[in-house]
Hints:
The structure holds two protein chains of two kinds. Chain A is built from three helices and five strands; from the N terminus they run E-H-E-H-E-E-H-E. By secondary structure, chain A is an alpha+beta fold. The N and C termini of chain A lie far apart (46 Å).
Amino acid sequence: MDEFTAGANTSLVRVQIPYHLRNLARIDGEVALEVAPPVTLRSVLDALEARYPMLCGTIREHDTKKRRPFLRFFACEEDLSHQPPDAPLPDAVAEGREPLLIIGAIAGG
Amino acid sequence: MSQVRVLVGTRKGAFILTADGKREKWEVSGPFFGGWEIYHMKGSPVDPDRIYASQTSGWFGQLLQASSDGGKTWFQPGVKPEEATPQFPPVKSNRFVYDASAETGKPLTTHQWYDGSQKPWEFKRVWHLEPSLTDPITVYAGVEDAAIFRSTDGGENWHEMPGLRGHGTGPDWQPGAGGMCLHSIILDPSNPERIYIAISAAGAFRSDDGGQTWKPINKGLYSKYIPNPTAEVGHCVHHIAMNPARPDKLFMQKHWDVMRSDDAGDNWTKISGNLPTDFGFVIDVNSNEPETIYVVPIKSDSEHFPLDGKLRVYRSRTGGNEWEELGKGLPERDCYVNVLRDAMAVDKLDECGVYFGTTGGQVYVSPDGGDSWKAIVHDLPGVLSVEVQTLA
């Protein structure tokens, strides 16, 4: 199985993360993660942190798993930041047609 | 030949400046962690190539970095990049959780907020890292909201030393303008059980039992801007310094006032003397002359820049009160930078080198104990901290 082929019981979810986190994780471009259903914010972030442990604590808090305040989750032109962590993500994300976008708030002048 | 390695934390990354013992020609490496705030970096006294760095961001929170080759390469403790396949347990080098257990610590209290109300402790960032004097993988962290943590595994796991925050005066601690930070940690080389810390704005504290229990050491401080100017806690201590050869003598730059103690902090006396202003952030002690101290006077708490646009270090060779202006090589005019509390350091060469960094991105060195100064670099991002390693 190559990097872009999902296993029999998993989905291949595409995730884009901010520049500084890509540097931290030594990632170029988009990440493709195998995620067992249901595909939710929690399951995708669990898979992301397991694949790139250096990201633990940078997107959500260690213990509470609360989203860090200046980060947001988007997909399919929807803001999913306030969606419950166990709510299913859009089918297009679960099927790998659209990426989940993790975006840092734009701040500064 | 001796070498010096200057570790510079800035608002946009870390830089390492190296020179031989003459301290004339410098090599600059970095930025490391470009774009991130590096609040502090410090090397282990027993293994100087082991360096710890506090990497922070308003977006992504706290990270802890370490190097085992003198800063050439870095890693997050607990992360092995070559094994970047699913890895458990998760990395915890950036997990700083206050100890609220009844068994090992003291239940969380609250601290005073700017408006006088009470607010729960909330971790924000690591301000200062202090490696052990005897063990390269033991390191202490001073954090905001103020508390002290310790790691005994090279920074992979951190545990609060809860006796400090829980000894009872916590509700009277309050944040300074920069936050409620524990910014100074000094380990006594003659007594492994003794640790000094300072918090803005709570004051200075000392432990005589390895950090299990603490007592405020603020007698003699006078802060007219707090309800009780001689209160046991609540003073805005900006920095404390010690010459390791005389660990009972401490020097302090308070919000206003420069102070000294000759009895391990039990009593303090004011030594501002003829300083043109005794507001400031940094203070340090010459490594060879324990009564020679340095400060950078700042105009006031309302105007954080040098008097009259002239950047000046002041030196006392008498342990305070009598100060001389040092300006050779420093800006004579139009200089409106600040020098933050952890941004001055001294080396241990025969002729003590003194270093400081500014919010304007300059790092200055004086290889002759303060007589003359030269900018090693002019245009770094704003400097948050400066530490120096003297290498054989």
